[in-house]
Amino acid sequence: MTAGGDDRTLDRGGVLLGVGAYTLWGLFPAFWPLLDPASPIEVLAHRILWTAVLMTAALTLMRGWRSLRGLGPRGWAAVAAAAVFIAINWGMFIYGVSVGLVVEAALGYYMTPLVSVALGVLVLRERLGVTQWVALGLGAAAVLVISIGNGTVPWLSMVLAAAFGTYGLIKAMVPLPAAAGLTAEGIVLFLPALIYLLVLELSGSGTFVSLGPWHLLLLISAGPATALPLLLYSKSARRIPLSVLGVLMYLNPTLQFLWGVLVVGEQMPPARWAGFGLIWVALIVFTVDLLRRTRRSADQPVRCTA
Predict the structure, then answer these.
(1) How many Å apart are CA 272 and CA 277, to the nearest integer?
(2) How far is CA 162 from CA 109, 112, 199, 273, in A?
(3) What string of DSSP letters covers 181-215?
(4) What's residue 158's pLDDT?
(5) How many Å apart are CA 66 and CA 293, to the nearest integer?
(6) Least confident of 6-15, 82-91, 147-156
(7) Within 11-72, where are the H helices?
(8) pTM for this one?
(9) Do residues 285 and 135 make contact, with C-beta atoms less than 8 angstroms apart?
(10) What is the pLDDT of residues 195-233, one digit of tens each?
């Protein structure tokens, strides 16, 4: 399948680009600890700062500023709101990795498609089929089972999923190309991040210049680490259907889950396994229904009108 053509063949290059994007995102739990002993907030500020610098340069080379020049006040307000929610998502993920909650962070990204569907119902008044309601019910049951088993609500997972789902909802209202959108969000967040880092360094609490060139370069590399998978995703989205990207998306939390269990050594008591099992079943139900709907739409004949 291609994004806009014959659905009998699949663009392998586009699939590889998508796999590359989600693999890089899935390996983020291995990257952020390299920036220790910087605090999660300091890491977040550097991520925002250097991503903004890099994307500003990239958009200039791509000659992509035209799409931003056409944004009115409402457009920039939506960009600002999206920037706030993606900053919350980034910050909470960095925090989760720093305190050894990688599995709970992975659960948040498993939950994101279901949260996006729920937001569509609550905000956009979308109507769901029986299968989609079943998937949402299984997702809610998973959170309940994990909460009872852990004795506490998986709040990190819920914040990650809610922030990213809301971010996606807002982004859908401002149809900017991926590179332009990330650049615009960086412009909004750049000054607060810069002021915070300057105050941190002047107070002697920052780590940017005090821990040697290797640490400095690692903090700067937070920019390319953020931009590269997004650009790969952007190129992939132009070559393969979003339904295929939706399936590839599960590669990200799966790699994070495996990292948390096999590398970090997080505990998986029976209740947690049961909760993840319900989430996986919910996602299978959701994905099968999505692919079925996509195939049905593709098989419908195109009507020509004069």
Answers:
(1) 8
(2) 10, 7, 30, 22
(3) HHHHHHHHHHHHHHHHHHHHHHTT---TTTS-HHH
(4) 93
(5) 35
(6) 6-15
(7) 12-26, 28-31, 40-62, 66-69
(8) 0.87
(9) yes
(10) 999 999 999 999 999 899 999 999 999 999 999 998 888
